[in-house]
Amino acid sequence: MKLRLMTYNVHRCVGTDRRLDVERVAEVIAAENADVVALQELDVRRARTKGVDQAHRLAELLKMRSHFHPAMAVEEELYGDAILTALPEKKVKADGLPLYPLIPGLEPRGAIWISVDVGGTPVQIINTHLGLVPQEQKRQAAALLGEGWITHEDWKAPGILLGDFNATPYSATYRLLKAALRDAQTQSPTWRRPPTATFPSNFPFMRIDHVFLTKGLETVGVRSPYGPLARTASDHLPLVIDLEITGA
User: Fold this and answer.
1) Which run of H or of E encompasses 127?
2) Best CA proximity match to 85, nearest among 20, 11, 162, 5
3) In terms of CATH architecture, what is 2-245?
């Protein structure tokens, strides 16, 4: 069984040309025909982006269902992450991640977990967006690896942790995650090509958007669209991973 994933930081649907355009982001996503789309930096009913519920609107345009988690809420204005899919699914959990108390005022971060049915096999998927401060990232990564998330009794392989980790492969945060899970871009018998970078979109040289896998999943394809539309729609490019589900 095959599964195509996308992780994409959409920068509140404001492109590198500083233009707000939800439909443009939807066009970039639609071109890749992913089964599951993990999105970061979505605005919902925020004045700065004309009050649009971006998670709902993108799902509507893509003919998918969405699960949104607001990492930050200011009265009715929300900001956070979502998972979109047309596959049979259910939300398992959505919650915040630890802050770093030694630095006040850091942006709140969170994660959302759904279970997706792929040809009769339940696949666990967690989407997240970690902070910018290394000590903060490590606390948040450790939480995701803990009993509330991927060591929870409901987390059973095959499973996927993906999103914008703000952490390169040289970071302690990345090493912590890779000690427990496999980077989908690691070379294997089914995937031999070098890793693909996604940031910044106009000249991508940094790998901070990642897909981590449990056993039971093999990478068979990796791409990051680099056409004019994708380079302009956000400050990140999407990362698209094709997987073969081999078992639990």
Assistant:
1) strand 121-129
2) 5
3) 4-Layer Sandwich (3.60)
